[in-house]
Design goal:
Mean pLDDT: 89
Low-confidence stretches: none
Structural class: alpha/beta
CATH superfamily: HUPs
CATH architecture: 3-Layer(aba) Sandwich
Strand order of the largest sheet: 3-2-1-4-5
Largest sheet: 5 strands, parallel
Radius of gyration: 14 Å
CATH topology: Rossmann fold
Strand content: 15-25%
Shape: globular
């Protein structure tokens, strides 16, 4: 049984996220999702998410193809989930190049057999949380 781990913020859940969940699920049998912590989002994006980490986690847990979801680490570059399970594949969004590089370095340093995969963009990246929020003046 192949386990796929998907990373993301998942603020303002929309069709692009659903596409991402579906694409990640195609890579394996079990889909587990790491929802970014509020402090990590503020560090990376320089602003708070619209929904709290608890709200975003609850929303992701309601997606029927998601087997399990958990809050990620507060500190960047820490991947404590490896203490609990070893995903076969880590799926990352098309716009998460820096995260992919960091995760791959971590995997090599710790000699894990996990593979990183970049997922395709939904509608050429035209439907993102940031663009939706901007159009709604949020």
């Amino acid at each position: 049984m192949k386990t796929v781990l998907l990373f993301g913020t998942f603020d303002f859940l929309h069709s692009g996220h659903i596409f991402t969940f579906e694409e990640a699920k195609k890579l394996g049998d079990v889909l587990v999702v790491s929802v970014a912590r509020d402090i990590a989002i503020e560090t990376i994006k320089g602003k708070k998410p619209l929904h709290s980490e608890e709200e975003r986690l609850a929303l992701v847990n309601h997606i029927n193809i998601v087997e399990d979801a958990f809050l990620g680490d507060e500190k960047l570059g820490v991947y404590s989930f490896f203490e609990k399970f070893f995903p076969d594949i880590i799926a990352l969004g098309y716009d998460q190049d820096a995260l992919k590089e960091d995760v791959e370095t971590f995997i090599v340093e710790h000699k894990y057999m996990t593979k990183c995969v970049t997922l395709p963009a939904y509608k050429n990246g035209e439907t993102t949380s940031s663009k939706i929020k901007e159009s709604l003046a949020l």
